[in-house]
Amino acid sequence: QVQLVESGGGLVQAGGSMSLSCAASGRTFASVAMGWFRQAPGKEREIVARITWGRGTTNYADSVKGRFTISRDSSKNTVFLQMNSLKPEDTAVYYCASKSSVFYDFDLWGQGTQVTVSS
């Protein structure tokens, strides 16, 4: 069974940096794109960034453009999120997700990792 396992996260001061990673395990992992989402308490889940496996095309939420960078290592089925210049409003549970087909929405999710940015 395919699983997404996130690592990284924790507590950082405002202005600091943090890196998250998400590794897909399982012999039948099939994905066209990966995304990082976040959900803060009392707020809806929002997409932060996404990347395609093929061309590495990236998209970012306006709130993180210029501060966050998503990347992938296709040989390891791993996607990364480098977060710089962190702000308290970046505090949330961060989830990675996989999109198995261009015809479907993100359909495989990791367990989430807490990112807390102190002011």
Largest sheet: 7 strands, mixed
Helical amount: under 10%
- Count of DSSP E strands? 11
Count of helices? 0
Instruction: Provide mean pLDDT, rounded.
Output: 95
Terminal-residue CA separation: 40 Å
Question: What is the chain-wise order of helices and strands?
Answer: EEEEEEEEEEE
Based on Cα principal axes, name the global outline.
globular
> Beta fraction of the residues?
over 45%
Q: Round the Cα radius of gyration to an integer and report it.
A: 14 Å
Task: Catalogue the unreliable spans.
Answer: none
Structural class estimated from helices and strands: mainly beta
Task: Summarize the SSE layout with pairings.
Elements: E1 3-8, E2 10-13, E3 18-25, E4 33-39, E5 46-52, E6 58-60, E7 68-73, E8 78-83, E9 92-99, E10 108-109, E11 113-118
Parallel strand pairs: 2-11
Antiparallel strand pairs: 1-3, 3-8, 4-5, 4-9, 5-6, 7-8, 9-10, 9-11
